[in-house]
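As promised in the previous annual report, we have extended the structural survey to additional targets. Below is the entry for Shikimate dehydrogenase substrate binding N-terminal domain-containing protein.
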Amino acid sequence: MTALRAAVLGHPIGHSKSPALHRAAYGLLGIDLDYGAFDLTAEQLPAFAARVRSEPGWRGLSVTMPLKAAFVPLVDRVEGLAAELGVLNTVVVDAGPDGPVLIGYNTDVAGITEAFRHAGLARVADPVVIGAGNTALAAVAALHQLGAQRIEFLVRNASRSGRPPPSRTGSASRSASRPSRAAPPA
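The corresponding structure token record, generated without further manual editing, is:
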């Protein structure tokens, strides 16, 4: 029988607790699955995606910085909010008629939304997002689901921030010297 495999991908990744957490969860569930960590740059990602397609046993990937947007063009299909936001954090490896099919998802939005709801916040009024990278895009979508009309961003270095979050007006701005505000995506 082929060993089942999954992994977290990012750069740097050595600090990640994902392998320990996933191995413990799979162990409790009685699932024999090896969960590893791969330190990859965006330039190394196409070769790794080809490896996943060619090696038997792969079931999924957790994707973190700086690969969330870089992996999108490498999957066969992008589902739900991953398609809308242009960033993913989960890749499911499914069986297809011609071999493995890589499907991208964004579970960050649901995780953020449910964390707020679990904390008793069903609605938000004046949220602030610290940072402006790909996870900030998910935070904006989650905050929109929680009723935010405008979102303030605190950005340390505007030159290192990613693209602005989508907004109802189609524009958003960022500033390193003062916070910026943007409407959440429609």
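The two ends are 47 Å apart (CA to CA). Strands lie at 4-10, 33-39, 58-63, 77-78, 90-96, 99-105, 128-130, 151-154, 180-182. These points will be discussed at the next consortium meeting with the crystallography subgroup.
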